[in-house]
Amino acid sequence: MSSASVEIRVIPYTASETLMVARDVTRLQQLEQMRRDFVANVSHELRTPLTVLRGYLEMIGDDPRLEGSPWAKPHLMMTDQVNRMYSLVEQLLALSRLEVRQDVEAPKTVDVPALMTKLEADSQALNAQKQHQILFQAAPAQMLGDSEQMMSAFTNLVANAIHYTPAGGRIEVSWSLLPDGRARFSVKDSGDGIASEHLLRLTERFYRVDKARSRNTGGSGLGLSIVKHVLSRHRSRLDIQSTLGKGSTFSFDIPRELVVSHKSVINE
Ligand code: ADP
């Protein structure tokens, strides 16, 4: 037997009165669950044939006869598209997993400075064409949570800054301790910025400001949605500040109770 779900909202009515509105959301929740299951199942089913295709393309790529043949270019284009599809499927699966639970199952110590070192190394490859100046700064503070999820949030934000900033820009990535014991991760870029009407929708699934441009960068529109879910599991929210023509800053604060040994770090 399935149980019913009721959503209750309390709305201010007059200065002294409030309205209470109750709504049966059972059907809505069932539909949402069906959507999640469908996306998770389709993504899962697509992963196997894509892995096989990738394997065959890799095998063809290793054949010395390919170089200089008329098949070299189509092979490259197919590899590109298959890789894009694969990473889209991976992102959809990641999102499905994040949507199932609202908290981190078994929080562990996340060594953020170590992740920042890895992030710096990883971003060199992404930055090879753009040649941005990227500055990294990390306070010696750790946090409680899920390392893999935090790394995916960091990576998405830094990759976006690299992609959406014209070549030769400046990007500042920092992990710092705030005076009240919280810790802040922030990525500031000197890119084109984002018009204010888009800001509230950026973390929606598949939302992209400029679809054609985002597709050219290999974007799927899922990155910030993943970031939003990762952060909500770490009791945090994404803050986006942006000025058209000047750039954007994407940041979030980790609550004091999840920042590890902040007192000892501050007292050092
Ligand atoms: P995508 O895979 O398209 O990059 P995201 O969810 O990561 O998807 O980002 C959603 C959209 O937000 C992007 O398509 C882009 O239009 C915009 N965006 C994200 N980061 C930046 C940034 N640093 N500067 C400008 N626009 C950005």
TrEMBL record:
GO-annotated cellular components: plasma membrane
Lineage top rank: taxon: Bacteria
Enzyme Commission number: 2.7.13.3
Any one biological process term the GO annotation gives: phosphate ion transport
Compartmental location: Cell membrane
Annotated ranges, domain Histidine kinase: 41-258
Keywords tagged on the record: ATP-binding, Cell membrane, Kinase, Membrane, Nucleotide-binding, Phosphate transport, Phosphoprotein, Transferase, Transmembrane, Transmembrane helix, Transport, Two-component regulatory system
Molecular function, one GO term: phosphorelay sensor kinase activity
Reactions catalysed according to its record: ATP + protein L-histidine = ADP + protein N-phospho-L-histidine
Enzyme class: transferase
Function: Member of the two-component regulatory system PhoR/PhoB involved in the phosphate regulon genes expression. PhoR may function as a membrane-associated protein kinase that phosphorylates PhoB in response to environmental signals.
Protein name in the entry: Phosphate regulon sensor protein PhoR
Organism expressing this protein natively: Gallaecimonas xiamenensis 3-C-1
Phylogenetic placement of the source organism: Bacteria, Pseudomonadati, Pseudomonadota, Gammaproteobacteria, Enterobacterales
Region of the whole protein represented: 171 to 438 of 438
